[in-house]
Automatic annotation (TrEMBL):
InterPro entries: Pectin_lyas_fold, Pectin_lyase_fold/virulence
The protein, known as: Pectate lyase-like protein
Superkingdom, natural source: Bacteria
């Protein structure tokens, strides 16, 4: 057993609320408990390991500042009113004006308030400077993606990429690191200190790909067999402590690391150009369109890349072809909350209608709703967790929820309700040869028409705890079902794994 114990509860559970607090502390007498973990009377959690030491990981440290800091309400420094012509230049000039202001000690410049009314946006808006919030007055402030052209209406984007600091790489010496671990041994910890930003590096490996049978995908004209150099996984972490050559990290390992599959390493990194502290809030986005299958119009309402510690909240998107919010690979610790994606307009086929899309790390999507989507709460290729989708609803769906592409690691789907499917499976030659969609994917207390959740041939497990819905075979025969527990059994406690883990994390 692995026990994470923190002595007292901080009641400021940002964006969660007292009802969730009570539900998370509901006793086993009110229902049933999972064999994978125990919520103790003091709110701490004991995780029950399998024969190899693997546990369901801790997903609590996701979202804005890992959930330890409340999303701020920035002071308004610029106010705009609607005009009867294209408003792109007016709003972009205001963004640029606020970008020129000196940030305060916390890195904030201020909020731009768009008063209620309709703002026509013929191209796109861009925020590339940190400390800026674009705010409306809720549904009464309408930003319209006018005219033709697939585009992202609001781009929040820094620059750069994670760059290894030369001479800092050291090898991990453990033969096996289980899922859920927050510590491991390295050849030498002398060059590291608490607080260092590191990459936990897990290299691609031919033996691993062979054991996953991803060099044997039944091919069509588009199929690409997996190649080791395309599967080097880089997890962003911070060092929380050092004991000798033992390193402790803030977020857990979410995929088994084994010497037989190439082991692993850590190194310090820089991300020059990545911005932070940008928010989009209280806005309604709409796209003009010519027909239900029109594709020459607004595609994404809000797109983030190369940014950490930002947020999107209280927004709605209507008639976009791809997404309300799409977080690219360079995002980290973003919270997307209390938002909606309705009535998408596009063809109903691949690469469309990914209502809330995540390709980044340590991001939180919560309290969301969609209609007419395909992959409503979804991750792409080689997405490195942990990431969380919590308390989200989908209706009139056209495909499935879950890891869509290839080998996402460490995602929690908690209290997801859909009239479609939630799938974690070997996708075979779909797309360009997606193959295994992911590992350490956890479905907790979800409701769906059905779910195909399978364990990959190597490197870990996928979990389904308390699902209301059918167990599906999945696309391909001969795959092993994942770890199913309590199917169609009401009363799972804690009701929300994420809330319980967040509460435990805030106890000190």
């Amino acid at each position: 057993m692995t026990k994470h114990r923190l002595p007292h509860l901080v009641l400021t559970l940002f964006a969660i609320g007292f009802t969730g607090l009570l539900l998370s502390f509901a006793s086993a007498e009110d229902g049933w408990v999972s064999k994978y973990l125990t919520v103790n009377k003091d709110g701490s959690i004991t995780y029950h390991a399998d024969e190899n030491g693997n546990t369901i990981p801790d997903f609590s440290k996701v979202g804005y500042h890992h959930g330890y800091r409340e999303i701020p309400k920035l002071k308004v420094v610029k106010t705009l009113t609607a005009i009867d012509k294209d408003a792109t230049s007016m709003i972009q000039n205001a963004i640029d004006e606020v970008a020129a202001l000196k940030p305060d000690k916390d890195g904030f410049r201020g909020a731009i308030l768009l008063k209620k009314g309709t703002y026509s946006i013929g191209t796109s808006l861009c925020i590339s400077t940190e400390g800026i919030v674009l705010r409306g007055e809720g549904e009464a402030t309408r930003l319209i993606a006018s005219g033709k052209g697939q585009r992202t209406l609001i781009n929040v984007q820094g620059s750069g990429r994670p760059t290894e600091i030369t001479g800092t790489r050291v090898e991990i010496t453990d033969n096996y690191i289980p899922v859920g671990a927050k510590s491991f041994n390295v050849s030498s910890a002398s060059g590291f200190k608490r607080g260092d930003a590191i990459i936990l590096y897990r290299p691609g490996n031919e033996a691993w790909i062979h054991d996953l049978q991803m060099d044997q995908i039944t091919a069509n004209d588009q199929t690409r067999q997996w190649k080791p150099e395309e599967y080097h996984l880089r997890y962003e972490r911070k060092i929380t402590g050092i004991q000798g050559n033992k390193i402790f990290i803030d977020n857990p390992v979410v995929m088994q690391m084994e010497t037989k599959y190439g082991g692993g390493a850590i190194y310090k990194y820089e991300y020059t150009g990545r911005i932070k502290e940008v928010g989009i809030e209280d806005l309604r986005f709409e796209s003009e369109f010519a027909s239900d299958t029109d594709e020459d119009h607004g595609w994404i309402a809000v797109g983030f890349n190369h940014i950490e510690n930002g947020w999107v909240r209280n927004v709605s998107a209507y008639h976009f072809g791809y997404a309300c919010v799409s977080l690219a690979q360079g995002t980290k610790n973003i919270t997307v909350a209390d938002s909606k994606c309705f009535e998408a307009k596009s063809q109903i086929t691949g690469s469309r209608r990914y209502s809330f899309n995540n390709d980044g790390q340590q991001n939180l999507f919560m309290n969301l709703e969609t209609t007419e989507g395909r992959h409503d709460y979804v991750t792409g290729a080689k997405v490195c967790g942990p990431n969380v989708f919590y308390s989200c609803k989908s209706s009139r769906t056209h495909a499935d929820i879950g890891p869509h592409h290839r080998w996402t690691t460490g995602t929690l789907y908690d209290n997801i309700t859909t009239d479609g499917e939630i799938n974690v499976q070997d996708r075979g030659n779909w797309g360009t040869g997606h193959g295994w969609a992911g590992v350490t994917q956890v479905l907790w207390n979800c409701k769906a028409k059905g779910a195909a959740v399978q364990n990959p041939w190597a490197s870990g497990k996928n979990y389904v705890v308390g699902l209301e819905g059918q167990q599906l075979q999945g696309r391909l025969k001969g795959r092993t079902h994942g770890e199913w527990e309590g199917q169609n059994k009401a009363g799972l406690q804690p009701t929300s794994l994420f809330l319980a883990q967040r509460i435990a994390a805030k106890m000190k």
